[in-house]
From TrEMBL:
Domain YbaK/aminoacyl-tRNA synthetase-associated: 29-141
InterPro entries: YbaK/aa-tRNA-synt-asso_dom_sf, YbaK/aa-tRNA-synth-assoc-dom
Official protein name in the record: YbaK/EbsC family protein
GO MF terms, alphabetically ordered: aminoacyl-tRNA deacylase activity
Source taxon at top rank: Bacteria
Organism: Cupriavidus campinensis
Gene3D superfamilies, per database record: YbaK/aminoacyl-tRNA synthetase-associated domain
Amino acid sequence: MAIANTLAGRLSRMNSQFEIIRHPYSLSSMATAQAAHVPGNRLAKTVLLEDQAGYVAAVIPSNHHLRLSEICEQTGRDLVLAHEDEIREVFKDCDLGAIPPVAMSYGMPTYVDECLMEEPEIWFEAGDHEELVHMQRDQFMALMSDAQRGRFSHRMM
């Protein structure tokens, strides 16, 4: 599978400068970081949440855990982890578990953890389990300009 069409469209509209990095097939964000030789704090992972009003995406470093209570407080919503079978309908151009952080392009509110904005460069899923997008911080910040920012994750021990 190539880069997700929705992501490719956003990258083009935002005139993003990036490169595609291929890596051995992996299913988890930490395994992806290892396979691609990327520091876990620089690999963005997208966690999908839901409530009766719909979906919300939280973008955090792959070596972090989401603090659900803090994202709920920030959004003012009673969110839970989204069910994977329903996610397929929203992210039709992505493999399950390889969702890029640009969830706003899929029509949902998106929140990005501030700690990602402190890194000089960021990698993230391109829509499959074998390719990552790599870009500099300023390019990532521009790409995520429609997302709200906050602190709602903590580093895993």
